[in-house]
Amino acid sequence: MSSDQSAPGLPGPEGGDGPATRRRRGAPIAVAACAGAAVLAVTAGAVLWIRPWASDRPETPDAGPTAEVERTTLVRTETLEGTLGYAGNATVFAGGDGVVTSLPSTGAVLEPGDQVYEIDGEPTVLLRGDTPAYRVLEPGVSGDDVRQFEQALAELGYGGFTVDDEYTALTADAVRRWQEDTPGMKVTGTADPAHLSFAPGPVRVAGKELSVGEQAGPAAPVLTTSSEDHVVRVDLAVADRELVDEGDEVTVSLPEGGTAEGEVSSIGSVAEEPESEDPGGDEEGDPTVEVVVTFSGDAPEDLLDRAPVDVEVESDAKEDVLAVPVSALIALPGGGHGVTVVRGGEAMRDVPVETGWFADGMVEISGDGVDEGTEVVVPK
């Protein structure tokens, strides 16, 4: 995790050193004085000019690159390590005994009506619904599971009955038509739970727990599935829990290059102890909670199935401040810091300033003679 921060040794908003932020990285500003000479010092990746104090400089033909003091909001960010993957992980269990005779390929997307797997030559079909099949449905049976099955059957185009919680003879007629159209399915007019697999919508085959030819038993794991939606999962240290809230906007750095905007969709409520990286060691990391980030709008195309990514989150912000690029700062030989103000494109004057927040290559400043729109030199 990294963030922009106040550089050590520079006065903060209250005149002291900038606040020390947990696990933020930053390089201190080194100040070196050399009478009558320009010496370079490095601060947070910017070049800092040091020169003797001059209350009024003689006119200079070219002040060089300049920037205006702007009134803005400075935002500090944290970088969280995440993993690109898919949402909605689930396991498909076998509904009965037998030999696995067919399985879909990993990565395949199954729609309602598609075959999920096959045991002893008989298919199990994906249907839309939230409740697992748990009993044989036949004429005379009633309940919420009947309504779910009838709704799923009607979505596949097999109607002629009223979608309700009663399994009638008309329902059985529609089931026979469906079974006749499904290769390998026995035509019985009843719905056997061994041949029904319910999911809220299309699923993506994430992995296989059995292979074709292996023996399956009741409730044995057959496949793992996910939704088609890409998400990023972050194992966030409990100590950093305050960094994010549900609904926060974030930026994801993609493994193929570029970035995408996202939103924190959920934060786990149970802390977990991560496993030790050393199988023989006793040391464990800090407890973490799972943070799930969804992409805003459609996810970028051609994303990898799984890959490490960085997630930039806003950790703090300060509004309505005057700020300039960090490279505009100069170190005054008598101590303190300043900026070189340009008047009329030529006349220059070094003006002392107080520094505050550092964020995203900008620094908060205040001082006499420095206002919004003031033009300052940004040394090359």
TrEMBL record:
Bias type Acidic residues, positions: 272-287
Subcellular compartments: Cell envelope
Domain Peptidoglycan binding-like: 142-194
Residue ranges of the region described as Disordered: 1-24, 247-287
NAD keyword on record: no
InterPro entries for this protein: Peptidoglycan-bd-like (IPR002477), PGBD-like_sf (IPR036365), PGBDSf (IPR036366), UPF0194_transport (IPR050465)
Protein's UniProt keywords contain Coiled coil: yes
Transmembrane segments: 29-50
Primary localisation category: other
Record keywords: Coiled coil, Membrane, Transmembrane, Transmembrane helix
Domain of life: Bacteria
Pfam family, one: PG_binding_1
Protein known as: Peptidoglycan-binding protein
Organism: Nocardiopsis sediminis
